[in-house]
């Protein structure tokens, strides 16, 4: 299994800037101005596309964060291959939670991606994937813990490498197809990159956020989930010299549609002793209906609150790169897409992503 280092206290990149003020309605019947909430200075959104940042190393997970299903239970270290080995690389894709629900989510094209390797010299197969340490719900919405002012996140994701390819799992409702062949030398270089990628790209991000359904529309925030790891892995192999087959490859994205996002601050500036208590309360209030539900009645009550907030009042709070953003939501609000992303062509880049 790919383990992670013990602690992290700082980011390796600077803060993203924010945008001009507007009006927010927190469902109380009276709009609240951003100038009242923030009492700060607003500058233009710094980039048309924000990507997940790289960190110096991985933080230790909090014991409060617990997984219903153990992360990477059969994980192992990535082996060192002989340079002359010929290794087949396979595209693997199956419906999310296929082990529990079969092809149910496959009908909605909500798919999980992985990559498989077959060593000709060793005669062994391997699977590599990247997913949530504490399941998808914890990566998408926080916990509101008693006695804690700020929302509490269990949103790390990580790579998992293990021996074997479960042919039935990938073939029955998904995809298992050869995409390229690499040498042992290329595999070993990829393994070094995986260690770097796993130690510095640590937070799972469910949402892609863009301005409209148009394919050329502005992407405000990019997701950081299983398919993005596979795409980065393919690109690394292409940069090392792998030549990919000309086959169609589609991936799932869950998209929120929003006007220009508004930067709100980080945990300290919003929830700290000198933070903005009005804004802090609004963020906690927004996340409250997304909590786990014990009864069907409780679920439908909170579902109505979510519809009222997101669709009727056009509000969404996004936590991205350890910072909070307000999204002025737009029709059609949310969409699940299954779109083609072509297999890569090599470039001159070497170790970065």
TrEMBL record:
Reaction catalysed by this chain? 2 1-tetradecanoyl-sn-glycero-3-phospho-(1'-sn-glycerol) = 1-tetradecanoyl-sn-glycero-3-phospho-(3'-tetradecanoyl-1'-sn-glycerol) + sn-glycero-3-phospho-(1'-sn-glycerol); 2 1-octadecanoyl-sn-glycero-3-phospho-(1'-sn-glycerol) = 1-octadecanoyl-sn-glycero-3-phospho-(3'-octadecanoyl-1'-sn-glycerol) + sn-glycero-3-phospho-(1'-sn-glycerol); 2 1-acyl-sn-glycero-3-phospho-(1'-sn-glycerol) = 1-acyl-sn-glycero-3-phospho-(3'-acyl-sn-1'-glycerol) + sn-glycero-3-phospho-(1'-sn-glycerol); 2 1-(9Z-octadecenoyl)-sn-glycero-3-phospho-(1'-sn-glycerol) = 1-(9Z-octadecenoyl)-sn-glycero-3-phospho-(3'-(9Z-octadecenoyl)-1'-sn-glycerol) + sn-glycero-3-phospho-(1'-sn-glycerol)
Record's Pfam families?
CLN5 (PF15014)
- By its UniProt entry, which InterPro entries does this protein fall under? CLN5
Q: Which domain of life is it from?
A: Eukaryota
Signal peptide as annotated in the record: none
Family per record? Belongs to the CLN5 family.
Q: What are the recorded GO MF terms, alphabetically? A: hydrolase activity, acting on glycosyl bonds; palmitoyl-(protein) hydrolase activity
Q: Which GO terms describe its biological process?
A: lysosome organization
Q: Which residues form a coiled coil?
A: none
Q: What is this protein called?
A: Bis(monoacylglycero)phosphate synthase CLN5
Q: What keywords sit in the KW lines?
A: Glycoprotein
Per the UniProt entry, what species is this protein from, by scientific name?
Buteo japonicus
Any one Gene Ontology cellular component term annotated for this protein: lysosomal membrane
- Protein task: Exhibits palmitoyl protein thioesterase (S-depalmitoylation) activity in vitro and most likely plays a role in protein S-depalmitoylation. Catalyzes the synthesis of bis(monoacylglycero)phosphate (BMP) via transacylation of 2 molecules of lysophosphatidylglycerol (LPG). BMP also known as lysobisphosphatidic acid plays a key role in the formation of intraluminal vesicles and in maintaining intracellular cholesterol homeostasis. Can use only LPG as the exclusive lysophospholipid acyl donor for base exchange and displays BMP synthase activity towards various LPGs (LPG 14:0, LPG 16:0, LPG 18:0, LPG 18:1) with a higher preference for longer chain lengths.
Keyword Transmembrane applies: no
């Amino acid at each position: 299994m790919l383990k992670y280092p013990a602690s992290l206290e700082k980011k390796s990149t600077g803060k993203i800037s924010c945008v001009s003020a507007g009006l927010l309605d927190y469902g109380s019947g009276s709009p609240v101005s951003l100038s009242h909430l923030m009492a700060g200075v607003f500058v233009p959104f710094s980039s048309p596309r924000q990507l997940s940042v790289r960190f110096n190393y991985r933080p230790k997970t909090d014991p409060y964060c617990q997984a219903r299903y153990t992360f990477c239970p059969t994980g192992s270290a990535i082996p060192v291959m002989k340079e002359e080995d010929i290794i087949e690389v396979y595209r693997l894709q199956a419906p999310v939670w296929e082990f529990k629900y079969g092809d149910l989510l496959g009908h909605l094209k909500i798919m999980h991606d992985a990559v498989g390797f077959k060593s000709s010299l060793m005669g062994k197969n391997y699977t590599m994937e990247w997913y949530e340490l504490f399941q998808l719900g914890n990566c998408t919405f926080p916990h509101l813990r008693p006695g804690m002012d700020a929302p509490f996140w269990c949103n790390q994701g990580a790579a998992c490498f293990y021996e074997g390819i479960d042919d039935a799992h990938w073939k029955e409702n998904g995809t298992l197809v050869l995409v390229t062949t690499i040498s042992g030398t290329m595999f070993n270089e990829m393994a070094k990159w995986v260690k770097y990628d796993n130690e510095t790209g640590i937070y799972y991000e469910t949402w892609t956020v863009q301005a409209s359904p148009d394919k050329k529309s502005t992407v405000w925030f990019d997701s950081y989930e299983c398919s993005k790891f596979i795409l980065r892995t393919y690109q690394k192999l292409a940069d090392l010299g792998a030549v990919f087959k000309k086959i169609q490859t589609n991936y799932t994205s869950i998209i929120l549609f929003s006007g220009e996002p508004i930067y709100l601050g980080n945990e300290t500036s919003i929830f700290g002793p000198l933070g903005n208590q009005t804004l802090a309360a609004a963020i906690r209030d927004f996340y409250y209906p997304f909590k786990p539900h014990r009864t069907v009645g409780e679920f439908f009550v909170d579902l109505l609150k979510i519809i009222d907030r997101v669709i009727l009042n056009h509000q969404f709070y996004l936590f991205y790169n350890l910072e909070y953003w307000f999204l002025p939501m737009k029709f059609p609000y949310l969409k699940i897409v299954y779109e083609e992303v072509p297999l890569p062509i090599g470039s001159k880049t070497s170790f970065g992503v």
